[in-house]
Each structure stands twice: as structure tokens, then as C-alpha cells.
Amino acid sequence: MDTAALALSLKLAWWTALLLLPFSILVSRALAFRRFAGRGFVEALIALPLVLPPTVLGYYLLVMFGGDSLPGRVFEALAGRSLVFTFEGLLLASILFNLPFAIQPMQRAFEGIGPDLREAAWVSGLSGWQTFLRIELPLAWPGVLSALVLTVAHTLGEFGVVLMVGGNIPGETRTLSIAIYDRVQAFDDAAAATMSALLLAFSFLAIGLVHLLTRRIGSRHG
Amino acid sequence: MADAVHSGLTVRFRQALPIPLDAAIECGPGEMLALVGPSGSGKSTILRMIAGLNVPSQGRAACNGDLWLDTATGVCLPPQARSAGLVFQHYALFPHLSARGNVEAALGHLPKADRGRRARELLALVHLEGMEERRPGALSGGQQQRVALARALAREPKVLLLDEPFSAVDQVTRRKLQWEVAQLRRALEIPIVLVTHDLDEAAALADVMCILHRGETLQAGPPMEILNRPASALVARLADLRNVYEGRVEGHDPERDMTRIRWRGYTLEARRNDRYTPGARVSWVIPPAGVILHRRDRPSAGERENPVRGVIGECVVLGENASITVLVDGQPDTRLGFTVPAHVARRNGLERGGPVVVSLLADGVHLMAWEAAEPS
Q1: CA distance A121 to chain B (A)
Q2: Kind plus residue range of the DSSP H or E element containing B321
Q3: What is the mean pLDDT of the segment spanning B283-299?
Q4: Which residues of A touch B155 (CB under 8 A)?
Q5: Which of B354, B353, B235, B245 is CA-nearest to residue B290?
Q6: Nearest by CB to A135, which of B94, B108, B152?
Q7: Which residues of A touch B53 (CB under 8 A)?
Q8: Does residue B62 lie within any of the structural domains?
Q9: If you average pLDDT over every residue of chain A, what do you get?
Q10: Which of B241, B218, B228 has the alpha carbon at shortest distance from B365?
Q11: Is A117–B154 a contact, with Cβ atoms under 8 angstroms apart?
């Protein structure tokens, strides 16, 4: 059992969720409530990681993060190190490939709030911000939790993108799923089995939780 | 500004798109105005524009001297700043909050410590004691409507807007709620605007009825005035007045204060109306109450006025009253409708196909500008 890899995976999941959730709440809410030009395009872009092979996504991220590209150079100039094969690069990649998992459940949840509820809040004197905090967020809460669970589970399990962008550096970019692959390559079946069982149990719990939460959304609005 | 002296609600909206509107509404404090019209006539849109949820391309709205909207000067207050209590057609209660929570959400103007007490008072006002902690899902339709009403009143609004508030409950509950709203409005010194497509409801509850057609306010006035003296044949049709006909003015009789019209071979006396010159084509209407049945057993008052002969087309007994349709001169295209007590129908042996004579009370015959009948 590679505890350093487990710790790194958890750290990555924590930071991904922390940075991605507020951003996703804003984006999913805008997609649910606003009608603007290019909305369909934005939705398609967000859904892309669902169908794109992880290696393809990883390849483009690698190119984007590299010292030859503008984002890569900007980061290098600011941080004094490369994005490629570092935790920061891995985190950025993780945020990008988790976009659909974070945004889509929340968007569904916000869309489930009838327009007249928000109007009733405004007519009752609640400001836009108060309406968000007291009406929209509590009603969309199951969707937000689903997004959180899916994001964490998916971060722990992602393999292709992580390998492409982060490589396999212990303590820096070797996550649990990479460690499993590593152990299998080294014929250390016992360690691979333990870590696989851990991820299996976690994924099962996560899916169960998401199902429970989506049922709650259904019953509340039904 | 003129609005400074004008208390109550004054509204003028105009736009061509997305739905055409040309509406003017005035509603004084303590007055209930019913906005009546068929579905799609723009009733709810006007209500939403008063609340600030929609904005017309041209318009002005002021309440008790406060200017809420004036497209000419670019004033447009958001809903939060308008202080309008709105009861949504489907209530739009917050499903995750209790009845008390729903009302407290609209009590943002009070200090936090006072909100709970005030919410309880408001819920008591709408007869929901003991239900404070229930969520909307655990309340009946009528109870939800009361919570919505309490929430709308919580802001101490300057105007109360009711969007078809009684349409989603059963009839017994509707009667009860209508009665309670009628009681409640005595305690409220604010304008109340009620949107409804139910003419009976409007006539029973409202002080002023405003007829809306394709976004245009055609006539506003006391319900009895609209039902007895519609401004046009279109208003008569929208107010579901069935006895609308076409005739020609024969002449005026200043001595008897009458106008004579020619209709289907009859010369009818009508309430004097000098607006139409002799020979002019007019539409005219008579309310069911202006039609008097000639009894077999004894003469009735007013029998000499405008006697008209016909054949009974239908006689339908609905509870205590019988609804009679007379085919004038036996012609199936000229129907005259009125009601008599069921026992009168029975005693006079009114039956389909039977001959009958009725009188049209001259005071009830109301002339209007001629308008080609629109297929309904």
C-alpha cells in the first residue's frame, strides 16, 4: 500500500474540489438561468472531457502547459517552474477534466428550480444574492453534493490524463491509480489489490450517495 | 407631478412586442380592480409588469406618488424596490421552508428578532394557526394559497396583486377563499388588482372591472355598469353577454326621453342615446334581467314595453332557476336568453317549442356602436 500516493490523491481531490466548486456553481447557475449567445457551445465544451479519450485530453494539456506555449511560459515566469510533471499542472488538468462532473449535476439542479420561485423571492424583497443563498442554493444542494462526490471520486480514479500530464513522480504526481499500475508492473499484486479494493469501495459509496441525492431532488420537485 | 396628488395605483403600458399591449389601469386605495379577459389577453403580463418582473417597451407606473416605472425618463425600479405583494397563480411557495419560513423570507424590512412574531400574526390572519411549521408539501391547495397570501402581505405592500388566485383549488375552497379575501380587503387600505378569467368572480368581488382584449384595456367601470352598459359589442361579447343584436336607429323621442330603434320588424324603445343619428346602424344589448316574461295567470309589470313574440328554444332548470332561450319569431338565429325562477317556468308550462311573449324593458336596451359580429 503506497500511503504517499493515497495522500497525494486525497490532496489533489481536496484542492480540485475546493477550486472547482465555487467556479462550477457560478457557471452552472448561469447556464441554467441565463439565455445568451454561444450557450450551446459552452455546454458542449464543458461536456467534451466526457467523450474525449483521456490520452488525447492529456496530450493537448501537455502541449498547452509546455514551455513553448503562452500559458506554460506565463506560469514559468510567475512560479519559476514548469507546469508539466508538477502537482500544480496536475491540479489544473484535474480541474479541467472534472468540469462536466462538477457542472452538469448542478446545472440540472438549478434548472429544477421553477422561475416563479426566484421571482417570488424578488417580489418578497430578497436581493439577487439573498435569493441565491436562501432559495437557490438550499434547493440545488443535492446537486451541489452530487457534483462534489463525483468530482472527488473521479479525481481519485483518473489515470490517462494524470499519466500524460504528471508522469509518475512519487510524492509529486504519483496518484493512487498510477501507483496501482506501477505495482502491477512490478508484480506486487498484494499492494495493487489493496489499493484497488480501496478505490472500488470508495467508488461504490460515491455512486450510492449520488443516487440517493438525485432521488431526493426528484422527490422534492415532484 | 400629477402622481404626487394621485393616491393608489396608476399604470400605463404600451408595447408592440413580444405581445402587443395598450393598457391603462387606475386603482384607488382600498379598491379592488378585476382585470378580466380571455386567456392570452395579457392579464398576467400586466400584473408582472406592475410587480417589476417584466418591463414594457413604453410605460409608466406609479403607486401612492412613488414612481416605479417611467420609460420616458429611464426610471425602472427592480421588484425588490416596488413593494408590491404578488400572489402567483401556482403560489410559488419555497418548498424547503415552512409556512413560517416562507412568510419570514418576505419580512426582511423588520429586525430579525421581530420576524417570527410577525410571521405568526400574518399566518393567524389567514387562519393558519397551528400550521406554522409545516412545509408547503404538507399543506392542501387552499392552505398553500393562504400562505402565499400571508407572504404577499408580509412586506406591507403598497399594492396587492392576485394572479388567478382561486383557479387551482376546488370550488368549495374557492368560495371560502373568495369570501375571506373580500373580508380581508376591508382591513387593507391598498389597491388590489385581481387577474381572473372568471366573470362571475370578478363581478362578485371587484369594485371595478377592467375588460382586456389582446392587450388592450377596452372598458373599466363598476361590474354592473359593464354588464348593463358595455362600451362596445366587443366588450359585450367578452363579458359573455349573449343578448347582443343589430338594429337601426329610427328616431329620438325627447319628450319621453327615448330612442326608438328598428329591429326585425319591431320598433323598440331604448334608453335615450343621442350619439347615434336616425338611420345609423347600431349594436344593442339587453341584460337577462331586462327581459320580462308575460305570464299566463296574471299580467306582469312592464308588460307593455317592447313586447316581442317567439318560441321557446331551450328551458334548462339549474337549481332554483330556469335558463330560458327564446327564438324570436321562431328564428333559430335570433336567440334571447334570460332566467326565471324554476317554479315560474313550471307554473307557466314553459316547454321547448311553446309560444311565448316577452317584454324588453326600455331602460335595459343599451345602444352601442355597430360592430360586425366576430365568429366566436
Answers
A1: 8
A2: strand B321-328
A3: 85
A4: 124-125
A5: B245
A6: B94
A7: 119, 122-123
A8: yes
A9: 89
A10: B228
A11: no
Asked if residue B70 and residue B145 are part of one domain, the reply reads yes
Report CB contact under 8 Å: A117, B85.
no
Asked whether residue B78 falls in the same domain as residue B55, the answer is: yes
- Do B261 and B294 reside in the same domain of the chain? no
For residue A139, the chain B residues in CB contact (below 8 A) are 94-96
Closest CA to B137 of B129, B147, B127: B147
Alpha-carbon distance B81 to nearest alpha carbon in chain A (angstroms)? 7
Burial class (CB in 10 A: 0-12, 13-18, 19+), B237: buried
Q: Are the C-beta atoms of residues A119 and A43 closer than 8 Å to each other? A: no
Q: What is the CATH number of the domain that holds B312?
A: 2.40.50.100
Cβ contact B78–A122 (<8 Å): yes
Q: CATH number of the domain at A110, please.
A: 1.10.3720.10
Q: What is the pLDDT of residues A27-54, one digit of tens each?
A: 999 999 998 898 999 999 999 999 999 8
Say yes or no for a CB contact (<8 Å) between A124 and B151.
Answer: yes
Q: CA A82 to CA A76: how far, in whole Å?
A: 5
Cα distance between residue A135 and residue A121, in whole Å: 8
Q: DSSP states of B144-187 as a string?
A: HHHHHHHHHHHT--SEEEEESTTTTS-HHHHHHHHHHHHHHHHH
Q: What are phi and psi of B157, to 5 degrees?
A: -70, 160
Q: Which residues span the domain enclosing B295?
A: 289-360
Tell me how far apart the terminal alpha carbons of chain A are, to the nearest angstrom.
46
Q: Which domain holds residue A50?
A: 3-35+43-221
Same domain, B187 and B304: no
Same domain as B86, residue B224? yes
Shortest CA distance to B258 belongs to which of B292, B305, B224, B293? B305
- Nearest by CB: A119 against B83, B92, B93: B92
ipTM of this complex? 0.83
> Looking at the 3D structure of chain B, how many domains does it have?
3
Q: How far A122 CA lies from chain B's nearest CA (Å)?
A: 5
Q: How would residue A23 be classed by pLDDT, with cut points 50, 70 and 90?
A: very high
Question: How far apart are the C-alpha atoms of B115 and A196, rounded to whole Å?
Answer: 54
SS (H, E, C) B206-275: CCEEEEEECCEEEEEECHHHHHHCCCEHHHHHHCCCCCEEEEEEEEEECCCCEEEEEECCEEEEEECCCC
Q: What's the pLDDT at B50?
A: 95
Task: Please tell me the pTM assigned to this model.
Answer: 0.83
- Condensed to tens digits (0 to 9), the pLDDT of residues A49-107 reads 999 998 899 899 888 888 788 888 888 888 877 888 888 889 999 999 999 999 999 99
Q: How many CB pairs under 8 A join A and B?
A: 60
Q: Is residue B1 part of a domain?
A: no
- For residue A206 the three cell numbers come to 460515491
Cell 327564438, located at residue = B327
